[in-house]
Design brief:
With 322 residues, this protein is of the alpha/beta class. It folds into 2 domains: 168 residues, Peroxisomal Thiolase, Chain A, domain 1; 143 residues, Thiolase/Chalcone synthase (Peroxisomal Thiolase, Chain A, domain 1, 3-Layer(aba) Sandwich), CATH 3.40.47. Helices cover 33% and strands 25% of the residues. The chain is built from 10 helices and 13 strands. The strands form 4 sheets. Strands 1-7-6-4-5 form a 5-stranded mixed β-sheet, with helices on both faces. Strands 8-13-12-11 form a 4-stranded mixed β-sheet, with helices on both faces. Strands 2-3 form a two-stranded antiparallel sheet. It is globular and about 55 Å long. Bound molecules: acetyl coenzyme *A. Acetyl coenzyme *A binds next to helix 2, helix 6, helix 7 and strand 12.
């Protein structure tokens, strides 16, 4: 069995914060942000737009795109580092709002790599027959964990949600199959202090703010992202030339370009949203997939490569025939 992506959806909060607006509040400039990151603007959720609210909108859009009803879904995984509550899971809130009473719903925490980890997890459930159809959601309200006085971090992130519907279907076991063809996920907890939130229920009993050593994260990102994709290339015998669309986690335009160059993937085959969305953590890949699917860039039968790296560190990649 293979797990196919049969629908995509996304949601972005209406409020857009430009670099110029940030420059009115903190000591930064549009020029600095664009040059270092490629980011020009980001969306910021309204007070009532919690992660479950925006994740639900993306899930509904993905179901509509798949032409499926909610009651066909027996697995919901929400990748998020910004859940509505410490518990219950944001996934169960979305499950209830969709009117689903069966199956399982849970959250998965791998920060910016969350969508890749969640897709890899759903793939295992679907390919093994443990589930028939899944919604995998990346939804984040990072605006709530940003220190808006800290110019080294607050300019980088945004809010948003993306979702895919995945369905089990038989394949031949070859690379010509549609569906998820390979996944690789990795973690190395020695790097916790490079990118973390300085609060939590078990430590400070507060939510805390995001803290990051940007240079260190950048350095590790390019190396680890290329490494995870090389595993996929070794396993499948493919190379950068075979990839129709590279849909990387959208943290920073310079990381995206450097990784594409290392992998031999031409920039015309890279889906980029970081300029308009900023870094939406676990939501960035499904947001980019939904955009490139909706505008007709990604076509059925094409090879799509996704990759991400985030706090932990966590990192991973997946190869999908659309
Ligand atoms: N506006 C203006 N100046 C700034 C800003 C800002 N927003 N932020 C920092 N600066 C200043 C610094 O204070 C420093 O000034 P100094 O030289 O007087 O001390 C100067 O700019 C250079 O700062 P650096 O941190 O050296 O700048 P760098 O070129 O490394 O760029 C950045 C910083 C953009 C954060 C970069 O390191 C980066 O992109 N790192 C990756 C981080 C990332 O993407 N994390 C996302 C989560 S992980 C992931 O998704 C992969």
């Amino acid at each position: 069995m293979r797990s196919h992506i049969v629908g995509c959806g996304s949601y972005l909060p209406a409020r857009i914060v430009t670099n110029a607006e940030l420059a009115e509040r903190i000591d930064t400039s549009d020029e600095w942000i664009v040059q270092r990151t490629g980011i020009r603007q980001r969306h910021v959720a309204a007070d009532h737009e919690t992660t479950s609210v925006i994740g639900l909108k993306a899930a509904r859009a993905a179901l509509a795109d798949a032409g499926m009803e909610a009651d066909e879904i027996d697995l919901i995984i929400v990748a998020t580092a910004t859940p509505d509550h410490t518990f219950p899971a944001t996934a169960t809130q979305i499950q209830a709002a969709l009117g689903i009473e069966g199956g399982a719903a849970f959250d998965l925490q791998a920060v910016c790599s969350g969508f890749v980890f969640a897709l890899a997890t759903a793939d295992k459930f679907l390919a093994s027959g443990a589930a028939k159809a899944a919604i995998v959601i990346g939804a984040e309200t990072f605006s709530r964990i940003l220190d808006w006085e800290d110019r080294t971090t607050c300019v980088l992130f945004g809010d948003g949600a993306g979702a895919v519907v995945m369905k089990a279907a038989p394949g031949d076991g070859t690379l010509a199959d549609r569906g998820v063809l390979a996944t690789h996920i990795r973690s190395d907890g020695r790097y916790t202090d490079k990118l973390y939130v300085d609060g939590g229920p078990g430590s400070t009993k507060t939510v805390g703010f995001l803290r990051m050593e940007g240079k260190e994260v950048f350095r590790h990102a390019v190396v680890k992202l290329a490494e995870t994709v090389r595993h996929t290339f070794e396993e499948t015998g493919l190379s950068g030339d075979d990839i129709d669309w590279f849909v990387p986690h959208q943290a920073n335009r310079r990381i995206i370009d450097a990784t594409a160059d290392k992998l031999g993937i031409g920039h015309e085959r890279v889906v980029v949203t970081v300029d308009r969305h900023g870094n939406t953590s676990a939501a960035s890949i499904p947001l980019a997939l939904a955009e490139a699917h909706a505008d007709g860039r990604i076509k059925r039968g094409q090879l799509v490569l996704i990759e991400a790296m985030g706090g932990g560190f966590t990192w991973g990649s997946a190869l999908i025939r659309w």
